[in-house]
Structures are given as structure tokens and as C-alpha cells.
Amino acid sequence: MENTKEVLIIKYGEIALRGKNRYIYENMLLDAVRKNLAGHGDFWVHKEQGRFVVEWSHDADFSRAIPQVTCIFGITSVCVAVKLLDHSMESIQAAALEYTQAHCVRPATFRVATKRANKQYPMRSDEASGKIGEYLLNNLDGLKVNLTAPQFTLKIEIRNFAYIYSADVEVKGPGGLPPGSAGKGVLLLSGGIDSPVAGYLAAKRGIGITAVYFHSPPYTSERAKEKVVDLAKRLAHFSGKLRLLVVPFTDIQLKLVDRTPPEKITIMLKRTMLKIAEKVAEKEKALALITGDSVGQVASQTLHSLHAMTGAADLPILRPLACFDKHEIVTIAQKIETFDISIRPYDDCCTLFLPKHPETKPKLSIIQSIEGSIDGMDELIERAITNAEIINF
Amino acid sequence: MRKIYLDYAATAPVCGAARVAAIAAMDNFGNPSSVHAMGLAAEKEVIVAREAIAHAINAKPSEIYFTASGTEANNLAILGGAKLPVGVGIVTSPAEHSSIKNPVLALEQRGFKVFHVEHSSDGSVNQDSLRAVLSTSPPVSLVSIHHVQNETGVIQDIAALVKIVKDLCPKALFHVDAVQSFCKIPVDVRVLGVDLLSISAHKIGGLKGCGALFVREKVHVSPIIFGGGQENGLRSGTENVVGIAALGATTKERFERIKENFEYVRGLKKQFYEAVKDLGSIEINGQNTSPYILNISVADIRPEVLLNALSAEGVYISAGAACSSNKRQKRDEGAVLTAYGLSDERAQTAMRISFSPENTLDEIAIAADIFVGCVKNLRKMKRLR
Do the Cβ atoms of B309 and A254 come within 8 Å? Predict the structure, then answer.
């Protein structure tokens, strides 16, 4: 039909409820949508209340475009809709008929749900639904009204233009908050399964990610680093812009291993990593540290061990996985496609130096006194940060 | 940074002769099965290569079947060679490459009975154990034992093993994986007496994606890939003319210089070992080895750490075989040396340095220096071993 066009409607959740600074969040989300759709044809996006509408100048390839946006945090759902330039009742009825013929397998029960965001429109929502429903009943066989549990729900939105779609074509988005809208955090990214998931969950709440990886050549290989680079790249798919710092850690690690009783080495390494992450956070203007710790998963993640991290960093430490079981973490890792990267068989620096009998109940005071006895660590840390390799995604 | 490659048992760069042949073959892009002149021109490339390989192992051209890799040649030999009603028994060594191990495992799952020979601590197959296995097993249809072990370089006395098999089990086929020996040490199928023999192109300067299986005349092997009936029906699929032409060219060149190269590489290996042996606590694994492979255990050093350290200095070697280092299950680590009855400690500290006639004396001297430096450095960090 003339005067109609297929468009993509993107609905967003929580941020639509925000007050005066809503536009800031909307613009962040808009940036993310534009970034992910780049390379998918010539398109433009306009804002409608609580929605973005994406239009293409030529034929759109929706099957490729939709997965590009359903991964963006802040988006609740996405659907292909028919846009009507003219929203007179006659046009809407005609388009509704055509749409129902094409999309509704009859016989079926149905209902029409109209949303009238344009309050100038000379008809209330329920009136409009009634008129459209009646028109469909009069012109199509095999339809029966059911307002409570219909098989087919035809959705009409009357805004600056009118939009028609059905509940069936809506694809769910991940929810959450737009990338970077909550400020920035520094993620301690190892090559394991947990830390990318922790980063993903932090990104879900709008935290922009700077990731830090500790590289200890020759004890960790180039392939172990490559694995982390691939994880960061995958994470950037969800988190928007992401920066990865590959921090050379060998000298620090050797010094710590030399000065620490073997059973305490993992705790000492982790505290030092938090310290470095905090220094990075300062430079990156980040407000929190994020780790993949899950209580009780391994010796260094018992509550005692987490307590022994006290004082290593002043910034809040977010542990999104603290109370997740391993299989729950694995399920998310598989969903976000980091799992297969994480299980590549290259060790990170912690696993290589794992003592035979790590301490499960380290005492903070003892850890702190060992830490105090190691001199020259600040210079080593400064040097490591200065020499870090920076990769932007 | 200067790069010194000492991992030739994993793969080798494409040699000059192979490059020239490959590019020429690209212009002969016809399908060797096509009747027209362009098909014929492509077929000629394949014929020339087949002759070169046959010549190098003293076989007839009609006994050479091209495959897409050494792995495929091994699979074809195992899966196509072991069969009923000759016997349900398969005899092999625990030190085989995974491209032998895994098809054998697949046959075991299909009901074949698998028996392993034992190795002596020098790496050689214990001939008494072969006799014992053959006399007590159900009828054996296939024996598969490597010529040169890919991690240790140990050379098996294939002729002697074949004799034992033919005496005790005349109907059994004898397959030998010659991927690490072809064009490096003498391989004469008549002298060895084998029925099936696998080779690979990229270990000797050919392209990856090309291999061949020798099948002795009148020996029947069943195809494992079906299609247009190329390679006399044994290996369907349009021939990889470019890869085959390159394999032919490198075979010709390497075979002509096989003795000269052997002596030269033996010198390199000796030079390297002499330069590093004073580090102390270094043991050579395997005796009667190919000059192309040196396998040493360096006490107190984790191979992957030394490997990373050397890699950072531009020296590339391998911990065991590259093919087995990306396995997820690490329990297989050092399986070959364990099969030789060597200690876990020795198996877990084993490194493979593999040479080529392309290496210069200078390179070996520098690489050995760097090796010594890295080991000394790592040994300083006693707690990190």
C-alpha cells in the first residue's frame, strides 16, 4: 500500500521513567543503537515518546538488523511495524486489514490494542480499537473477539504517525540501562569463565567498562593474552565502548612469590591486582572495581578470603556473581558466547602459581603485615601501569 | 627481532621449488578429470608429482594415492585397512600420533580389539612384546607403527617389525606413519616391506592440505571418502593440483639431497646439544633418533614457560608435539615418554627442538645461547619451577 513503510520500533524500559535528565540516557542509548546498526544500510532514527523508530532509505534487512539491537542494554523489545504517514481512521482500518490478512492465521480469536500517545487525535484509544476491530470483523472471515486471552493481538500506536504491528513479532531485549549511563567501572578480567560474566552484568546496569588483564610472560603465553583480548571484544558487544589494559605483571608476581608463604600467594596477588585496578580507575575516572568473585567457589573466594581483601582498595568493589552458583554463571557465559573463549586451554597467571594447599581462612592482619614488609612495590606498580598496553574496542 | 625457527617437526616454510611449482600449477587450473586439453595439462601436474613420490620411496606411481593431509592418509590406512574377515585385532603403539590413535579408538568403539606393543626406555618398540601380542591376540588385520616418532624422533626398525608380523600373522597389513621420516631419512617400501605408508607435504616444505598414502599393489584398502572415484576410487574429490604439484617438487628436491641434508642436520643437532648440555640436568629422550628431532628434558623447567620465554626472544620450539598442545585434557601430556617408561618428572619437562637443512650454523649458535640464557634465568626463580 502507498503511504506505508516497514520500520523498526525499539522500546526502552526504565529510562523512559526518568525525569528531566531522561534525554541524556536516551541519547546514550541512541548512540549505541547507531553504533550497532552501522554497516546495516542507510538508516535514520527518530524519537517517539518511549521509543525509537528506525527507518531505512531502501529495503531493510530486518533479520540481520534485529539481533544487532536486541543485545543493547536499556532496550526492552524490538519489532518490525508498518508505519502510516496518514493516520486518518480510514487509512488505519485499511492498513490493519492488510496487516491482519498477512499476519494472522485464521480462524483465530483477536483483539485490537490501541495506544494514543498523540492526545490531539480526535478519538480515544478504546473507541479507536472498537472501530478498527469492527472493520476487521466486517471484512475478514474467521475472526472472533476475545479481549482477555486472544490468539492474535493487533497493536496500533497513534503518535505523530500511526504504527501497526502484532504482539507476535515483538522480540525481547535484555532490559537494564544504556551502556555507560551509570558511570565507569574497572573490571578485573582473567581468561576464566566468571569475570566476563561479571563484566556483562555490570554493563547491564549501565556501567561502562575498562578491563584490566594481568599478563605475566613467560609464565603466561601470548595465547592466554589473545584469549583475553577476544573476551574483551565480545564483552564490548554488550557494553558499548570498552578499553582493555594489558598490565605487565611478571616483575610484581616474581617479587610477591619470592616474599610470600606459598599458601598466601593467591591472596597477595589478588590484593595487588585490586591496587593496580584502583590506580587504573583513578586515571580512567572510574568509580568502582568489578570482580568475578563467587563466594566459596575456590580458596581465594571464601568469605574469609574476601574479607582479607579489605583495605586493598578504597573504591567500592562490585561482585555481581557473589551469590551465583557455577552452573548459573556458565549458563550466562554460554548465552553471551564468552564460554567457548574462556575454556580455551591457556592458563592465566593465577592458575600457574597456584599453591598445592592454598589458605582458605587467611587473616587480614597477617596479610597486611606481609604486605607491609615488601618494599618497592609502589614503584613496580607504577611502572606496570605506565607500560600497560591499551586496546580500545 | 631475528626469528629462529626450530619447530620443523610441526611444520616447515614452503620451499622455493614448491612455490615455483605451486604457482605454475595455478595456471593449469583445469580439472584433472576433464577430457579436454586443460584437464590433461592439470592431470600431468599430478602425474609428475606421483612419479616423484613413488621414486623417493621406491614404489610404483600406481601405488601412490593423494589425500588432503597426513592425518587423512593415516585415517584412510586405519579405517580402510583394518577389516573383517581378516581379523578383529589391531596392533599399534602407545606412542602414535593422534591421527593414528583416534581412528584406532573409533574402530575399538565399533568392536575391534586393540592391542598395544611396549616400548623400551630407549624408545624402540620391544620386539618380544610385538611377538607376544601377535601370538596371543585374536586374528590381527592391521598393525600400525610409526617410523620416526614425532615428539622424540626415535627411529623404529620397521623392517624387523614387519618381518615379525609377516611370520606370525601373514594376512595382517602393516601400516607405517612416515610423516616425520619421508625425505628426511631413507624410506624404501621394498626394504621396509610395509603395505601402507603415510606422508605429509608441509613437513618437508610443501603446502598444508596435502598428503599421500602408499598402498602396496594388490593390497585392498576401502575408501573412507566417496564421490567421483578419483585416485582410482580410493580417494574421491577433485585433486588438489596446486598442493600436489608443490609436494612433487619439494619431494624431488629433498630426495636428491637426502644424504647431504641428513649429515648437515645431524651436525646442527649435535651443535645445539653440545651448546646447551653444560646447563646440567639435561637428559636426551630416546636413542637412535632422527637427526631432525632433538627431545630433551630440562630439569626444573616447565616447558610452556621456557617456550614462552624463548618465543619472546624470537626462538620457536615446541613442548612435545604442537598437535597435542591444544588439547583440553592435559592428562595426555608426556604420554609418549610415559610409554617409554620414563618418569613423570622427565615426561613433564620434555622439549622438542626440530631442525631443517634451512637452519644455518649461526642460527643454531644464537638459538642455543638464548636457550641457555632463558633456562638459567628461569632456574634462578627456584620457587617458580
Answer: no
